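Posted in: Protein Modeling Q&A

I'm a second-year student putting together a small comparison for a lab meeting, and my supervisor asked me to include a predicted structure for Putative membrane chloride channel (Bestrophin family). I've never done this before, so apologies if this is the wrong subforum. The sequence is pasted below exactly as I got it from our records. If anyone can share the structure token output, I'd also love a short note on what stands out.
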Amino acid sequence: MIGEQIYKLLEERLTAFTAVQVACERIGSTPTPFTYTLLIHRTAYAYCFLLPFGLVSTMGWATPLFTVLVAYAFFGLDALGDELEDPFGDHPNALPLLSLARTIEINLLEAIEAQEVPEFLRPVDSLLT
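Accepted answer (user: helix_wrangler)
Welcome! Here is the predicted structure, written out as tokens:
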């Protein structure tokens, strides 16, 4: 039988876990508005197109090099935002939820000193699922 204090602690942990799960489901099911994505793309293109005109008087011949570096950073951040938009998917950069769940399962089974403990998941083709 579970004591009253342990039951209360267990209920608090379960409530916190449920709140985290709801937050993750909200993140996973909320799409990024198309207008936001469009605005980010157009702003990056406009900034990178107009940047050389603002720098040419101070940077001289180094203007193209600096503009390319800034454009690389802007479009890299834009691509990073696209990848992070769906953290729970099946693509290579998604969170390895199965591996995380297996690790938690192993830790819990070791804590209760279970006889059979599953193996950790190994990467397949350098990807951890």
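A couple of things worth pointing out for your meeting: The mean pLDDT is 86. The CA atoms of residues 27 and 64 lie 39 Å apart.
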